[in-house]
Design goal:
The protein is mostly helical. It has two domains: 96 residues, no CATH class; 47 residues. The chain is 74% helix and 3% strand. It is built from eight helices and two strands. The chain has a two-stranded parallel sheet. Helix 2 packs antiparallel against helix 3, helix 2 packs across helix 4 and helix 3 packs across helix 4.
Length: 146
C-alpha cells in the first residue's frame, strides 16, 4: 500500500508537483534519445508525486508503458528477468549505433562508460520472483486508492 506524504506547505507542494511533471517530460525524452535515462526520471516523478498529488501518482503508476517498471522498483527494488535482458540489449544496440556515427574518441569512451555503468546497475538489481510478478499484475494492486 502506498503511503502518501503530501506536503502541507502549498508552495513546496507546487514545487514537488512541478518537479514531478519535469521528470515525466525528461523520462519521455529518454524513450526517444539513446543514453538518456527513462526509468530513473519516472521513479523520481513518482517520488515527487507521492509528496504532492495522489491523482498524478496514480496516473503515473497506472500508465501502460511506465507504470509497471515504477511499481517494480518502488515495491520490490527489482526488475523482471525479461526486462533486464531487453534493457541491456537495447542499451548496447543504441550505444553501438551512436558510437558508429560519432568520430570523436572521448565521446565513444563516454558512451562505453555509460553502457558499463547502466549494465552494472541493471545486473545488480534484484530479479523479481514469480509471486512478486503476480502481485504486480493484480488489478486490485494497481488500482488501490485510499
Amino acid at each position: 500500500m502506498t503511503e502518501f506524504k503530501i506536503e502541507r506547505n502549498k508552495f513546496i507542494r507546487i514545487l514537488y508537483l512541478s518537479a514531478g511533471v519535469f521528470c515525466v517530460i525528461m523520462g519521455i525524452i529518454g524513450v526517444i534519445l539513446p543514453v538518456w535515462p527513462t526509468t530513473i526520471f519516472m521513479i523520481l516523478a513518482a517520488w515527487f508525486f507521492i509528496r504532492s498529488s495522489e491523482k498524478y501518482y496514480y496516473k503515473l503508476v497506472r500508465n501502460r508503458i511506465f507504470g509497471r517498471m515504477i511499481r517494480n522498483y518502488r515495491e520490490y527494488q527489482g526488475i523482471e528477468k525479461n526486462a533486464r535482458i531487453k534493457s541491456i540489449s537495447l542499451l548496447w544496440l543504441t550505444l553501438g549505433l551512436s558510437a558508429t556515427f560519432v568520430e570523436i574518441l572521448y565521446i565513444r569512451i563516454i558512451l562505453l562508460l555509460v553502457g558499463i555503468g547502466v549494465t552494472w546497475h541493471l545486473v545488480a538489481l534484484k530479479t523479481l520472483t514469480e509471486e512478486e510478478i503476480r502481485n504486480l499484475n493484480d488489478e486490485k494492486y494497481i488500482t488501490e486508492q485510499p
